[in-house]
Specification:
Blueprint (H helix, E strand, L loop, with lengths): L1 H16 L4 E5 L2 E5 L11 H9 L8 E5 L5 H8 L3 E6 L2 H14 L4 E4 L11 E5 L13 H4 L6 H13 L3 E7 L5 H8 L2 E9 L2 E8 L1
Parallel strand pairs: 3-4, 3-6, 4-5, 6-7
Antiparallel strand pairs: 1-2, 7-9, 8-9
Helix pairs in contact: 2-3
Amino acid sequence: MLSRLRNRVAARHLLWKSRRAYVVETRTGPLLVLPGVLDPVATKVGAWLGETMRGVVKPGEHWLDMGCGTGVVGLAMAGAGARVTCADIDPNCVANARANAALRRVDLDARLSDLFGAVGPAHGVVYNAPFWPGEGAGEPFGRAMYAGKAFEAIRRYREEAAAAGVGRVLLALSEAGRDHAGARAAFGASRLTHRERVGGEWLVILEAE
């Protein structure tokens, strides 16, 4: 009961903050959060994933930041020397990633794309995926948080990554999701590459096998 109450209070605070632009600090630098875009520090996964991916990518590799949001993950990978393409279905997120690239003077390509619709092959791709089961229709941040009744967003991601010829396919999840086992099963055969407790949640990165 207490955990649900904390989550509700946190969600209301996040919605209040999302009505205006503001800057948050991350370990990889300051980050602008535009109205209507998820805060990767408040929601934990994005900021953690960016820090972690700095140790995964290698200079000169081409990586895709799928569902880029503010661009926090793509910016971190670019800072580690990778060539980065950010992709998101929400034009506000694409604009936010571009704004943060300009703010930090980082060279990256941000594109409007429904998963792999406007991006091609790469050395690797990482997706800070929606991991709540259900549609989330009409809810603020619904598309960013809800993956469909059978986690269709995650299933499509795995299928399209294979079709696009991407070498390494990574998925980030929080074990605090309502059905973590279901989200992981939707991704298919995979291995756990990272697991860390952040702010009371276990966050993980899976790599497709």
